[in-house]
Please model this.
Amino acid sequence: MNIVITGASKGIGFEMAKLFSNDENNTVVAIARSGQLLKELKNACIRQNLKNKLKTIVFDLEETQSIQTILIPEILKYVNTVDILINNAGVLINKPFHDFELSEINKLITVNFISHSILIKELIPYIESGFPKHVVSISSMGGFQGSSKFPGLSYYSAGKAALSNLTECLAEEYKNNGIKFNCLALGSVDTEMLRKAFPDYKSITTAADMAQFIVDFAMNGYKYFNGKIIPVSSTTP
Ligand SMILES: NC(=O)c1ccc[n+]([C@@H]2O[C@H](COP(=O)([O-])OP(=O)(O)OC[C@H]3O[C@@H](n4cnc5c(N)ncnc54)[C@H](OP(=O)(O)O)[C@@H]3O)[C@@H](O)[C@H]2O)c1
Model:
């Protein structure tokens, strides 16, 4: 399978890229800003399976103007169809609503929502030629209607809610193309992002455990779900 994962340099994305790469039939295209961390991912995949087909691309998703002109041609150097796209990259800024600068609001909405929407749009022709044609977007319980909310996470949560909603809209719009769109609203996972959001909180879910769940869902969930926003959380937060 050909799998594209954003935000693969650390945390959950890193673990997902490793899991998918362990199968040498998979070509995994891993995207993030940090070339150094992507090199560490490459080394981890080599240690795990010498025949892995992990490809890495250093790209800042905040540069939305360059997704079509730079990122897509880079991806197409490695794969000519996409079977699974995982929109996992995310950024969190934790501060009171009143104190947000416009540049911070733009960053949160651009990385957590707009970049994913453009990547989906640009990759749709290649996903249409793939199988199982599954687009999995990684949202948060903070962006899930009716869930507990936390001060400081207003724009992060609102951006995640937009990504969740987009999933429902695209499932309807592309229902005749065979593409399945689902969104996983994650609860707490022990990563750098969580430590930043909740410094005194320790999650019982590891990045590796959550990655295993998402990988299984990406490979099988398309059979049972389309246009769904699924809470994946056993605790609050
Ligand atoms: N951990 C949790 O408790 C939790 C809960 C709910 C939802 N989530 C969601 O799960 C996803 C993964 O989070 P995580 O906990 O694994 O976070 P993480 O460890 O902070 O990893 C975030 C990933 O996103 C990448 N990224 C950030 N900004 C980027 C940009 N501008 N362009 C390209 N890549 C960018 C980072 O790579 P670079 O820095 O190298 O670019 C990194 O690989 C996120 O969408 C997050 O919102 C996490």
